[in-house]
């Protein structure tokens, strides 16, 4: 079934590609897709197309990749060309999901029905770049999807709808990303169908209370500080899977820690000291409690269970991981 509603889509990573695919499958006309320019990726640092671009090209949807849409930035001519293209492309609404470029007021004013953002948190909690990581890291019991009418502020626009998603004790950023991407895709299709039927989406201002910011993840955050509480370290490991991973230094070697559980027991050992080595897991003393590591990766290797890892990288009780300076 096709709909008369015409949707310009702006997004870049897999999270956005899933929403684009759902909009396309629902039969909405997509006259244009915006996505970030191709970036070097992989060991060969070859230019790679974004997941959104790959989907669009596969389905013969026109693609534009302006490096900026701000006339006063580093790319004024490219921004002007991008804005002119938006004006020249007949459409009704713009859907934005993890696009990665700031949209100035001039762009927000172009679509007759405005710009709708798919945000992976229950706003106003976790505005910003890394809401899934930060929700896990903070130990939130739930997160979700918020559809928001975009305005010039950072994720400050009024809310059109919310979907609550519980966070399981075993969730990682990877698993939660997939759950939220599916929820976001379903939510935006439902909203677009209502618009296509002539409904007006009611907008609720975000409350002033409960605002938090999800700062972009930095590789430097990967280092595990064994002086912290074991529960906090376990959350960090889950939050940083698949990027950047938990990192631990042992005798000058940087190991990745991909799976771990916190144990409430206490031992009189310095933080970072290995207190037990078993095929099922290696237990390490923390500032409070113990961390039992069950999945590892050595430099140049692949993820391994503790049993597999110990076969090629033996560990002993009493060895100590370095504590960050």
Structure description:
With 325 residues, the protein is α/β, with parallel strands linked by helices. The protein has two domains: 3-214, Rossmann fold (3-Layer(aba) Sandwich), CATH 3.40.50.170; 221-312, Formyl transferase, C-terminal domain (Methionyl-tRNA Fmet Formyltransferase, Chain A, domain 2), CATH 3.10.25.10. It contains eight helices and 17 strands. The protein has a seven-stranded mixed beta sheet.
**Radius of gyration over alpha carbons?**
23 Å
CATH architecture of the largest domain: 3-Layer(aba) Sandwich
Mean pLDDT: 96
CATH class membership of the largest domain: Alpha Beta
What characterizes the major β-sheet? 7 strands, mixed
Annotation, overall tally of beta strands = 17
Task: Spell the H/E element sequence.
Answer: EHEEEHEHEHEEHEEHEHEEEEEEH
Figure out the total of helices: 8
CATH fold annotation of the largest domain: Rossmann fold
Looking across the biggest beta sheet, what order are the strands in?
5-2-1-6-7-9-10
Q: How many domain modules?
A: 2
> What do we call the CATH homologous superfamily of the largest domain?
Formyl transferase, N-terminal domain
Structural category:
alpha/beta
Strand content: 25-35%
Query: Percentage of helical residues?
Result: 25-40%
User: Which residues sit in consecutive blocks of at least 5 with pLDDT less than 50?
Assistant: none
Distance between the termini: 60 Å
């Amino acid at each position: 079934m096709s709909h008369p509603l015409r949707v310009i889509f702006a997004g870049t990573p897999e999270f956005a590609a899933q929403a684009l695919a759902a909009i396309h499958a629902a039969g909405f006309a997509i006259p244009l897709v915006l996505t970030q320019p191709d970036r070097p990726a992989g060991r060969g640092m070859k230019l790679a197309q974004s997941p959104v671009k790959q989907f669009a090209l596969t389905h013969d949807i026109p693609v534009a990749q302006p490096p900026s849409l701000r006339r006063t930035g580093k790319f004024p001519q490219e921004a002007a060309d991008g804005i002119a293209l938006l004006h020249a492309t007949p459409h009704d609404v713009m859907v934005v999901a993890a696009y990665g470029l700031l949209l100035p007021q001039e762009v927000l004013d172009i679509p007759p029905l405005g710009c709708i953002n798919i945000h992976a948190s229950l706003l106003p909690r976790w505005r910003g770049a890394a809401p899934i990581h930060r929700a896990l890291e903070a130990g939130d019991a739930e997160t979700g999807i918020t559809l928001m009418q975009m305005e010039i502020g950072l994720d400050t626009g009024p809310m059109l709808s919310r979907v609550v998603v519980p966070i399981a004790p075993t969730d990682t950023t990877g698993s939660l990303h997939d759950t939220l991407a599916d929820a976001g895709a379903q939510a935006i299709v439902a909203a677009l169908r209502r618009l296509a039927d002539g409904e007006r989406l009611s907008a609720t201002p975000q409350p002033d209370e409960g605002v938090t910011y999800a700062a972009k993840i930095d590789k430097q955050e990967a280092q595990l500080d064994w002086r912290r509480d074991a529960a906090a370290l376990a959350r960090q490991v889950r939050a940083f899977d698949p990027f950047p991973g938990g990192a631990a230094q042992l005798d000058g070697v940087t190991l990745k820690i991909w799976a771990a559980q916190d144990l409430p027991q206490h031992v009189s050992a310095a933080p970072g000291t290995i207190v037990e080595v078993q095929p099922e897991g290696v237990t390490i003393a923390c500032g409070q409690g113990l961390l039992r590591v069950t999945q590892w990766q050595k430099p140049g290797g692949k993820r391994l269970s503790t049993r597999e890892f110990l076969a090629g990288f033996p560990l002993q009780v009493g060895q100590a991981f370095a504590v960050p300076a």
